[in-house]
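Can't paste images in this forum, so I'm doing it all in text. The chain is below; anyone willing to post the predicted structure tokens underneath?
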Amino acid sequence: GATMANVMCASGFPEVLAKRREGKLGDYNPLPTPIVFGNCLGWLSYALLSKDPYVTAANVPGLLLGFWS
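Text version of the structure:
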């Protein structure tokens, strides 16, 4: 499950890299980015409070990608 969550969060990564190289958004939809960030932040908070390493592993990469992009 943690692997699938990481793959899902990383699916938009190539497009973000391409748009950053171009220096413009073009047709890229930035709306999902803060949603991904908020979702991963909420799950990461839960994971840290419940000391669940699997939920933590599933959400740290998504949080970082949501913050970066």
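The chain has a mean pLDDT of 82. The radius of gyration is 13 Å.
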